[in-house]
């Protein structure tokens, strides 16, 4: 397949997603598929939750346009359909966590057996040779997939954040995958669809009148797709990258979710309950605005993805990559808190010196 084919397919995915972002807006408002302000939700007005549905339709259109019909592509579409449907029902009616997890596992199994994509190996993270999972293959595939799916769901707390982190991961997969891998085409089609969604979700004044959210339908779609395309190029005899490289492409969402999980357990709280201990919450408590928070976390993820791509082409050993990734994961919360604290102190000093404009003065006073 020529790389030229991906251009019209990506354009179609972008256009179809954008069209449905407009078309689904009045439908969502009429049936109550909206996010209402209150509690932890500080936005103004009812915001349609249509991003997941629109992106799914755009992705399907892109896959049809590229003309690839296989067990893998059909399995992908069916799996995404299940995730988007249960996500949409959850966005509208609130579905129990158990039901969501069962459907997510069903989608993972359909994709795994349909495309014969499993987590057979985790590479050589400990310097003892490649570790094959053997009888743990299926369980490991499900656990890692659930982790990535829900990591992107949990990180979706700031306009544009989940979408930007996903686009970075997908482009990284495309860069290392090359145009010999079908995963590259899927990654670019999904990234194009996300790009169209971001026109309606990126935190800028210009799109405020049409602001929309992706909801659980969208965030789980992103996590699932990123897991699958990364798995596809890191397993089997035709593997292009080490599985350890893939960890870097989703570093921020995974660091965020695992850190929250562990810290809540240490504090004697349920790790599955919502809270305000995610990275974006920490940065906002430090006085950063939505765009600044988005920029910091997206910038960190882009830096990690670039490091992984460079390491891949330089042939850096898995053990060095895994140790570095683990150290970053253990210290990421401290890094984020340090950035937040320094900015908070900066705002206080500027407030006392009278060096802030009215908007930033109000923000600094609110932090007291």
Explain what this protein looks like in three dimensions.
With 368 residues, the chain is mainly α. Helix content is 69%, strand content 1%. It contains 14 helices and two strands; from the N terminus they run H-E-E-H-H-H-H-H-H-H-H-H-H-H-H-H. The chain has helices at 6-31, 51-66, 71-93, 97-115, 137-154, 161-177, 182-198, 215-232, 243-249, 251-266, 279-285, 290-314, 318-353, 358-366; strands at 34-35, 47-48. It has a two-stranded antiparallel sheet. Helix 2 runs antiparallel to helix 7.
Question: Quick one: overall form?
Answer: globular
Measured as a percent range, the helix fraction is: 55-70%
From the N-terminal CA to the C-terminal CA, the straight-line distance is 59 Å
Structural class: mainly alpha
Please tell me the overall pLDDT: 90
Strand content: under 5%
Spans of at least 5 consecutive residues whose pLDDT stays below 50 are none
What is the radius of gyration?
Answer: 21 Å
Major β-sheet strand ordering: 1-2
Major sheet summary line: 2 strands, antiparallel
Separate helix tally? 14
Secondary-structure element order, N to C: HEEHHHHHHHHHHHHH
Total beta strand runs: 2
